[in-house]
């Protein structure tokens, strides 16, 4: 069995431990131990992967393992990682670890909440390690299904509507995905579901690729907040509990960009070249529309949700530019946005837990009342608007430089339009920071509120460390990603 299978085995053991746990302290202990093991495993995997590459191992996928699962359709449990998978696993483990501490005080039904939260994380980890299309799809569905209960039971606001809308739209995307996956399988000879084997021996005619590419790209794009299929995202984010928002925006939405690149573009390269201009227009709209929409929101979660639409749109935008620099920037943006938005949602949840409101108009003077949380919010905002020294700057500059490498007028015009999102982002971030942190105290009762507890400080400090670390030392991450992006682009740009 591959070491990668531990990313599925450990969450299953966490589920077993939670089932056995009899009180709140035991539940917390199981979650801390399990999430710590996942974080340690992902760090070890990252180091081992870098060492293997430095020692001269140039295999497309490392730590591979495959065993037949359903032979009539050539479905296998096949796992392996490249540089993209490794950094996505690292991101996922960080979010699960910090999300555990962000949910430390959650009540009621704490045990049940963590059971569904762990099942969601199981699907995420399984998706990133799998290289068999059907097994990837299975883990993809495992990651989506718990969202309905996590929002519908533990959410806030119009949670039933948000849970139903999210589930229906993502299941609609799943229907397109299964059609696209089966189309790739049967039109390539019905001999394998393995992504790497299909890419190496691709016989799908160009006209057939043009039929199934929209199915796959839109199917994953729905999760990646592709315009106009993004409308589930703001409602889902606004109603989800804190740690679910962190995992949802921080990791789950990254499954969309990862799937578009790994499956749609990699396995249907001719269609990617032919149809990319259509989706490039849609992603450009996502980037600008999401930023403008965030400017007019008054709910802190909706502001961050529309910001996520803009930033996740930037991921798909960069992938469709199909240059190595832009695609490397897209993966960096996945990492950066995952960390930033998790930090944002954690802080918003902590502020809401004290003030019982997320309305910008009803908040003010928080810097005086809760300085730790307020400083964390300022740091998250500065990272979001792309201040040098934080991860957002590295990711966005890499994307825009790589996008401008395309010399034609269409791609450069799209790049310039997308660049305007930087200014728009600064507008809504600085407006909110000034309103809720520095204006006069909106309610005298706020003066009685307390600052962050120890568990909240652990979550916030870990995320700030990662956001600043990626911004100050991005080269090693960029090299790991670049080595994986190159072979995929060689297939796409054949």
UniProtKB/TrEMBL annotation:
Q: Which UniProt keywords apply?
A: Membrane, Transmembrane, Transmembrane helix
Q: Which residues cross the membrane?
A: 6-24, 31-52, 75-101, 113-131, 137-154, 166-187, 211-230, 277-296, 303-322, 334-353, 365-390, 410-430, 458-477
GO cellular component annotations of the record: endomembrane system; membrane
MF terms per GO, please? NADH dehydrogenase (ubiquinone) activity; NADH dehydrogenase activity; ubiquinone binding
> Matching InterPro entries, A to Z?
NADH_Q_OxRdtase_chainM/4, NADH_UbQ_OxRdtase, ND/Mrp_TM
Residue ranges occupied by any NADH:quinone oxidoreductase/Mrp antiporter transmembrane domain in the UniProt entry: 132-414
Q: Which Pfam family, any one of them, does this sequence belong to?
A: Proton_antipo_M
Q: Which GO terms describe its biological process?
A: ATP synthesis coupled electron transport; electron transport coupled proton transport
Residue ranges the record marks as coiled coil: none
Localisation per UniProt entry: Endomembrane system; Membrane
Q: Does the keyword Isomerase apply?
A: no
Membrane topology reported for the UniProt record = Multi-pass membrane protein
Residues in the signal sequence: none
Q: Which domain of life is it from?
A: Bacteria
Alphabetical list of PANTHER family matching this protein: NADH-UBIQUINONE OXIDOREDUCTASE CHAIN 4, PROTON-TRANSLOCATING NADH-QUINONE OXIDOREDUCTASE, CHAIN M
Give the family this protein belongs to, as stated in its UniProt record.
Belongs to the complex I subunit 4 family.
Q: What is this protein called?
A: NADH-quinone oxidoreductase subunit M
């Amino acid at each position: 069995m591959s070491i990668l299978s531990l990313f599925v085995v450990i969450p299953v053991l966490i589920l077993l431990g939670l089932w056995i746990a009899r009180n709140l302290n035991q539940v917390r202990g199981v979650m801390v131990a399990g999430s710590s093991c996942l974080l340690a495993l992902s760090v070890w995997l990252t180091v081992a992967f870098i060492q293997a590459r430095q020692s001269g191992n140039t295999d497309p996928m490392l730590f591979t393992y495959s065993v037949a699962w359903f032979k009539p359709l050539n479905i296998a449990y096949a796992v392996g990682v490249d540089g993209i998978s490794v950094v996505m696993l690292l991101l996922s483990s960080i979010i699960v670890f910090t999300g555990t501490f962000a949910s430390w005080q959650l009540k009621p039904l704490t045990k049940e909440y963590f059971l569904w939260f762990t099942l969601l994380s199981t699907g995420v980890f399984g998706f990133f390690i799998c290289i068999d299309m059907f097994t990837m799809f299975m883990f993809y569905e495992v990651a989506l299904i718990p969202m309905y209960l996590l929002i519908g039971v533990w959410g806030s606001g119009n949670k039933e509507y948000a849970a139903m809308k999210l589930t229906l739209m993502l299941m609609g995307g799943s229907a397109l995905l299964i059609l696209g996956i089966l189309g790739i399988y049967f039109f390539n000879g019905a001999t394998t579901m393995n992504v790497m084997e299909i890419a190496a021996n691709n016989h799908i005619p160009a006209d057939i690729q043009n039929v199934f590419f929209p199915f796959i790209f839109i199917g994953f794009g729905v999760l990646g907040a592709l315009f106009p299929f993004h409308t589930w995202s703001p409602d889902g984010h606004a109603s989800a509990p804190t740690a679910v928002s962190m995992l949802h925006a921080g990791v789950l939405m990254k499954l969309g960009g990862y799937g578009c690149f790994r499956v749609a573009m990699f396995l249907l390269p001719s269609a990617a070249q032919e149809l990319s201009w259509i989706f490039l227009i849609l992603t450009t709209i996502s980037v600008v529309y999401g930023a403008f929409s965030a400017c007019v929101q008054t709910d802190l979660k909706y502001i961050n949700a529309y910001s996520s639409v803009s930033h996740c749109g930037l991921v798909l935008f960069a992938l469709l530019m199909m240059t190595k620099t832009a695609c490397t920037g897209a993966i960096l943006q996945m990492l950066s946005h995952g960390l930033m938005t998790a930090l944002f949602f954690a802080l918003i949840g902590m502020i809401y837990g004290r003030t019982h409101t997320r309305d910008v108009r009803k908040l003010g003077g928080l810097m005086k009342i809760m300085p730790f949380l307020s400083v964390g919010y300022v740091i998250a905002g500065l990272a979001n608007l792309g201040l040098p020294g934080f991860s957002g700057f590295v990711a966005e500059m890499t994307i825009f430089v790589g996008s401008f490498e395309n010399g034609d007028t269409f791609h450069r015009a799209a790049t310039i339009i997308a660049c305007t999102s930087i200014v728009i982002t600064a507008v809504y971030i600085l407006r909110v920071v000034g309103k809720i942190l520095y204006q006069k105290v909106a309610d005298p009762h706020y003066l009685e509120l307390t600052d962050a507890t120890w568990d909240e400080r652990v979550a916030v400090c870990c995320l700030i460390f990662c956001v600043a670390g990626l911004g100050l030392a991005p080269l090693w991450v960029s090299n790991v990603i670049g080595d994986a992006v190159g072979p995929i682009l060689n297939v796409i740009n054949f």
